[in-house]
Write a structure and sequence with these properties.
alpha/beta; 5 helices; two-stranded antiparallel ribbon; 7-stranded mixed sheet; single chain; Rossmann fold
């Protein structure tokens, strides 16, 4: 199957979840992350605001604020680049592309990428090899290699977002080292061959 065919399947699987199941799985994901010692040690965390049928990152953001962590969100720029920027309860947001909320570029306060201790990576689908299928613009594929070595990189999603089959990928696609779902924690492995 092509990437677009997989994306369609991923979106349909997420939308098929009931609101009760979505809440149960969101709570399980947040609990798995907040009890992880790497999260607990982290001082600066790079998160994302969920949109559409994604799992709700709000409890994770609130946990970070409650524990005096510096929270950053990425701000996207026209050259397909992203920058980590400070996110506080007072940071204004704008809505783009329907329901995607983001910090307006002109009001963004960049933070030093080298200070990021923990990065939560969004995606539509993930496989055992760390292949991450996003929305197709390549922002994260360009951004993730710039993170410092000490940064914990973790992708998370509903159970239906982890597939056992190898997803299609290109040489420029960044493979995530670890994936959490409510049912499992996966340390990814290398592809044997393309």
């Amino acid at each position: 199957m092509t990437k677009d065919q997989w994306r369609k399947l991923g979106k349909e699987a997420r939308k098929a979840l009931s609101s009760e199941e979505r809440l149960i799985q969101t709570n399980a994901i947040c609990n798995a992350i907040t009890t992880d010692p790497r999260w607990q040690r982290a001082k600066t965390v790079l998160l994302f605001l969920s949109f559409g049928s994604e799992w709700d990152t709000t409890p994770l953001i609130e946990d970070a604020w409650a524990n005096d962590k510096t929270v950053a969100l990425t701000v996207c720029y026209p050259d397909h680049q992203m920058k980590p920027c400070l996110y506080t309860p007072d940071t204004p947001l704008v809505t783009a592309l329907g329901s995607l909320r983001e910090i307006p570029q002109e009001l963004a306060t960049p933070i030093d990428i080298n200070n990021i201790d923990f990065c939560l990576i969004p995606g539509l689908l993930f496989d055992p090899y760390g292949t991450r299928l996003g929305y197709g613009a390549g922002y994260y594929d360009r951004f993730l290699p710039k993170l410092p070595e000490h940064c914990t990189m973790l992708a998370a999603g509903f159970n239906c977002q982890f597939v056992g089959a190898a997803l299609p990928y290109e040489a420029t696609d960044y493979h995530v080292p670890e994936i959490i779902t409510p049912a499992k924690r996966i340390k990814t492995r290398m592809h044997f061959s393309k």
